[in-house]
Every structure is written in C-alpha cells, then in structure tokens.
Design goal:
alpha+beta, 5-stranded mixed β-sheet, 73% helix
Length: 697
Amino acid sequence: MKKAYFLLLFFITFSVFAQQEPNLAKYKTTTEKLNVWLKYTNALLDKEDYLKLITAAQKGISLSENHLAYKSRFYLYAGTAYEFSNNQYEKALINYEKSLKYAQQAHHLKNETSALMRLNYIYYSVRDTVKGKALTNYIKQVLDTTKSNYTKAVLNGSLAEYYQNNSEYETFIGYQLKAITFKKLLKKDKVNQENIGISYLQIGSSYTRMKQYSKAIEYLNEAKPYVKNSPYVSAFLCNYYLQSFVALKKTDSIQKYYNLIYTYPTAKDSLFLNLSFANRSMSDHYINEGKPNTAYNYAKKAVLFGEKSNDEEILMEANTALGRVLYEKGEYKKAIETLKKASINALNYDKESFVTINKELSQSYSALGSWKEAYHYNEIYTKYNDEMMQESAKQSIANAEARYQNKTKQQKIKNLSAQNTIKNIQIAEAKKQRLYLISGLALVAIIGLLLFKQNRNRKKTNQKLQVLNQELDEANKIKARFFSILNHDLRSPVSNLIHFLHLQKENPELIDEATAQRMQTKVITGAENLLSSMEDILLWSKGQMDNFKPHPRKFTVADLFEEIQKHFSSVENIDISFEDPEHLSLNTDENYLKTIMRNLTGNAIKALEKHKNGKITWKAFQENNQIHLSITDNGHGGTQEQFKALYDDSEVIGIKSGLGLHLIRDLATAINCKIEVNSKPDSRTTFTLKFATNFTN
C-alpha cells in the first residue's frame, strides 16, 4: 500500500478539469503554445489517461526545446504516466532523472521538488539503494538551504517515505510531523488542507504496521477534518480505520467503516483499490473470528477488485489473504496455487508480505506431506524473517543508542546547568561593577551633552545674528537702490521745473505773454506728470521694500511709451519720439522696465544738454524671436569705458558718474533682460533692451 500514499499526494497536487486536445495552430508564440499544452497534459493526468499522457508529454518535450522549466515539467508527466501505467519503473526513472536535471538547470525549485519526491519512491521500487541514499542526502542539503515552505513541506514528507520504506518508523514520524508543520504555513486552500490530512493518515498507517492500533486511530482522527471534503482520501482513511478496528475487534466500528467505503464516489482504479483493501480487512476479521467460509467470500471479492484495479501490489495482498483463508479451510492445493501467484512480485512491494506468503506456503505443503517443498519455503521464510528481525533489532539498537545518548546529553545538561548557576552569580557581580562604571560614564556623557548643547545653541544664535546682518545689509542695498531710482527718475523733471521758475523770476522781460502762457501750461502739465510719476514710484517702492523681486505681467509697449512720454513732457529743445509699428506686448515687470527706460531717457537728455537739434528715438521691434526696445540719441557718443558700469559689478560708482548705469544693470538682470550699447565718440549712442517673447519669472 506504499504506492497509494504517492497517488494521494500527486493527484491532489495536479488536479484540473479535463479538456479536449488543443489546436496549437491557433496560438502564435511558443510560450502560449506551451501553456495551453501544459493545461492539456494536466487534464490527462487528472483523468488518469496514461497512454495519451505519454504521447502528450513527449510532444510537450519537443515543443519546449529551449524552455528548460517546461521541459522539466513534461518529463515529470512522462515519468508519472510510465510509473502508473503498469508500473513501468525503469522508463519512469529515466524521465524523472531528466526532469530533475532540467529543473536544476532552470533553477525551478518547484519542478525540482516534484522530481525529487518521485525519484525517492522510484529508487525504492527498483531497489537502487545506492542512488536512493545519495538522493536522500541531496534532499537534506536542499532542505538545509531552501527558504521555501512548500519545498520543506514536500521534501520532509518525501524523506519520511524513505524511512518508512526502510521500516524506520520513528524517524518517519519525525519527518512527517515536520512536513505537517510546514504545510500548515502554506496557503489554506483545499489542496493543502487535504495534504495535511494525508500526512496524518500516513502516520496512522505506520502505527498500524507497528501494530499500535489505538495510536493509529488517534492520528486517523487528526486526519479526518482535513479530508472530509475529499471522497478519494476519505475512502483510504476509512480503510485504515477498518484495519485498526479489525485488530482491536470492535465489531460495530468494523461494519460501520466497511459500509462507508462503498459510499465514496472516486475514480475507477482507486475505487477498486479501496474495495479490495476493505474486503481483505473483512476477510482477516472473519478468519480471526473462526469463520473461514465468510472470510472466503470477502477474500474472493478482494481478489476480484484487485484484478480490476490493475495494481499488482493490491492484487498480491488480496491473493495473500485468499491463500490464508484457503489454508484455514483445509484447501491446501488451492492455497498453494493462490499463494504462488501472490509471491511473484511480493518481495518487490513488501518484505513482510513476502515472509507471510512463504510461511503459509511451507505450512500448506507440510499439511499435504510434501516435506521437501515445505522445507524449501520454510528456508525462504526463515531467511527473510531473520533479515527482518535483524533489521528490527538494528533499529531497536539504534533507538536504544539514541535513548542512551539522549540520557547522557541530559546528564551533561544538568552539569552545564550547575556550571551556569555559578557563572550567573559571577555575571551578576560583574553586572554590578559594570553598572557603576556605566553610571559614571553616563554622568560624564550628560555633562558633555550639556556642553555640546550649549555650544550648539551659541552657534545657532550666531547663525541667526548672521542672517539678521545679511537681511540688514540687503535692506540697506534696497534703500540705496530706491534712492538712486528717485534721484534719476525725478531729478530731470524737477530740474526743468526749477529752470523755468528761475527764468520767470530773474528774466521776466525775456518772456512775452504768449510764451509765458505756453510755458506756464507746460510747467503745470510737467508738474502734474511729475506728481503722477512720484506717486507711481513711491507706491512701487513701498510694495518692494520687503522683497525686491520682479512681478511679471503682460502689457502693451504703447502704454509703456505713453508713460515715458508723459514723464518727460516738460523737456524743452529735445525731440523725443516713439515708434511701435507692430503694436507689440511684453510679459515682464512693468515697474522695473519703466525705471530702466526713465534712466536711459534721462541719461540721453543729459547727453544732449549742449547739443542743438537734440533728438531721442524709442523703437519697439521684433527680431530672432526676441522683442527689442532701443533708445537712440544723436549726441556725441562715448567710449566703452564710460559704459563699463553696465557690465562690471566691481566698477566704482558715484551719484554723478554711472550710478544710473549700475542701477540699469541690476534691474535688467532681475527681469532677464539683455542690454547692448553701441556708441563711439562723435557718433550717436544706441541702447538696446532684448526680451525673449516667452519670458516668464
């Protein structure tokens, strides 16, 4: 029945819905084809259609030539098909080994885990103990390094199977309990819950082999809630309950679980397997009750269902039970015939069954007086029974040695505990001394911390003072800048006004009535414009006191030229003209630009004071995606040294020697305006202000 455990785990893991063979021509990429074909092979596995699965898996292998993970999975399915199709273990072995190889190359841990689980069973089935031992050691290495709870769950269960197959039941139970621990950490879906139940069921079945039936029932009870929704597993569970209650002679429970097995709908092969198992247990029960005829009826059913199950191991066990019944009925020749059928592959499946068969063959030949044959089978029985006893003895010795080592370790632990008590006292004293030392260090640290905080606070205060000094310095610079603006923007209009008043006061005879009237009107207009300009400048200055920063907005050049024209309306003897043929607009700080233009206009007027027919022209035009504002006067020009303040921050300046240019430079920089000057001695001077059309600040 060892094979049944693998069936339980394997088919639950890969259960999917059946489907028809897909048409791969409908899919474009290799990956799409592989995924579809993988689903199809899963469906064949679920249907237990092993002949088709072999063909489909081989096609999948050819499809996945350069896809190692898929190739590993298809080799795994091919191995499964051969294994469960008339126990073709050699072919299964080849495919499982290739599956493991490609899984390792692809670093696909899940495929590797599945391949290791199957190979562990196959090496046992073909009696390759060397490879089986090597594989077990490799599995232990994987368990030591992996972080995957899934791999730990599966491979601990696989190691448990290895030790169960070698009748090392205590070790088996230890690994199986580890497997259960990791399975409980996995996702709580139906499949994983059933696998936990199967692990408990396997532990229960091991206790039946050790003939500890009450203990077996305890673990079967643990399994029951996990497998209640799986008819397939529940049928196996009922069989182990039945086997345990037969041994404990619980008649009511025997009949209850026997009837229950017939109520579970499962796949065809597993149905016959479970029915054969159940009828074999009932045959044993009635033999023990001394009712060989009733036992015979159940044994015949066990053989019938065993033949239908297509499982040689199940059929072997059923024939063993029937041979025993025939012996008890005194039908020795039929018993011998049946037992010989059972003995053909018995040793490959279960040494204990093989020993039982040869013992009953010897007894049957002895009852017929065939002493030679009886002696022959008795020798076989004795040889393998002795081997089993030796293995059991070795295991008992190993267990005894383990218990002795455990006892020795316990004594060592006691000695170490006493030593630890002494050391703990010493440690306590050392802790006191360390506490005093730490207290002293803590006090020093606190003093150091206070000094550090005091120093940091002083630094912070100094930093604040430095910031305040910087702010004060900046405020002084702003104040100086506004004084210079007031100086340049207001000096020329005020100067013109004062000039007229002096002329009117000191030389009134030079002015006729018409000229006086004209000049008076012009002075009034100039004074009003001056007042408006002063109001404009002072309001702007007030708004800029906290933060001297441009505030761009869109306005027309025409409005700007109109403001400049009004501001300098009182200027005499100089023709100031404005040209804006394209009706341009600017997006910049209007007040900054007005200040620049007033300064440039004022400088041009100053340059034309002693020049006849003075002319100043402001032009607005667009060139190379830039708006240009230019002012040109027909004065005597100048050298580049005279305009150095426009470009050099280090230039020493004074109120009458370049402060206007210095101010123009700073304001132009603030609004991203580029200034160019074109002037030569005895030639006109042109200042050009250049603005990007998309300027924003």
